[in-house]
Structure prediction request, 312 residues.
Amino acid sequence: MADFSKPGSLYGAIDLGARKQALEAQARRDAAGPQAASSASVVDVTEETFTTDVIDRSMTVPVVLDLWSPRAPGSAQLSPVLEKVVGDLGGKAILAKVNVDASPQIAQALRVQAVPTVLAIFQGQAVTGFQQVLPEQEVRRWLDELMGAVEQFYQANPDARPQAGPGEPEAPAGPPADPDLVAAEQAIEAGDLDAAIEAYQRLLARAPGDEDAKMGLAGVNLIKRTADADPADVQRRLQDPADIDAQLLAADLEMMSGSVDEAFARVIAVVKRTSGDERDRVRRHLLGLFDALPAEDPSLAKARRALASALF
Prediction:
C-alpha cells in the first residue's frame, strides 16, 4: 500500500500533464529553427499530419479545428462557413479540417461526442469551441471574440508575443487560455477549491470535451475529498473489507501520493466484489479518477481493460 503520509500536489501533476504535448511541440519548433509561415489558411488533417498541421502550428497561430463527417448533414452546412470566416482573417488563423470517419483516433483523443465539433487550438491545447451548427453571423462573432482576446492578451503581455526573425513576417497573435480555466487556476492558488470547481463546471458546460477542465475538476475534487483525511484512520478502517468508503478514500490518497496504478487496482478489486447500486457507485468513482489523468497516460489503457474484465 502507498505511503499516505506524503501526499503530492496532484493539481501540479495534472497541470504538467495537460501541457506536455504543447511543450514537446515547442521543443520541435525551436530545434527546427525559423521557418516561413505558410500562406494557406485551410488544411486537411490526418492522423499522420495532426502533430505538424495542428499542434506545431498552434504554437504561434490559433488553429480552428473542424471535426466533420460526410455522414453528418450539419457538417455540410458548417464547413463552408468556417472556410469563409477563417479565410477572411488573411492567415491570422488556420482552419484544420479532420474527417472523423477517416481519422477516428483524433476524435477519440479529443473526446469528440458529436459532429460537427469546432475547437480552437493554441499551444497544443483546446481553449474554446462549440458543438452545434451555427449561422455565419454567430461563427464570425465567436471568431471575432477569440481574435479580440488574442490581441488583448498580447497587449497585456507584450513579452509573450512571438517575435519574427530577420526577414520574416510578424507572427500572428495567439489566444489566451479560456477565462474560466484561468479563474480556476487562480482560485486554486488562492486555496478556494469551491470557486475552482464552479469555474471548471462553467467551462465544461460550454465545452464538454475540454480535457484541461475535466482533469482540473477531477483533481480539485480529489484534493477536496482527501483534505481532511487521516491516513492512520484510513489504514485502520481498511481492516474491514465491507468498508467500501475506506477503500475509495484509500485509492484517493494513493492517487495523491502518485501511486496511480495501485489506486486503480484497489478500486477495480472493489468493483469485482460488489454488485448493483454499490458497484455502480464504485465504478463511477473510478471513472472520476480516470478523468484526473491525460487521455494518453499509459496507466489508463491498462486500467480500462481491467475494469471491462471486472464488469463483464
Notes: DSSP finds 13 helices and five strands in the chain. The first helix runs from residue 10 to 32. The chain has a mean pLDDT of 80. The two ends are 27 Å apart (CA to CA).
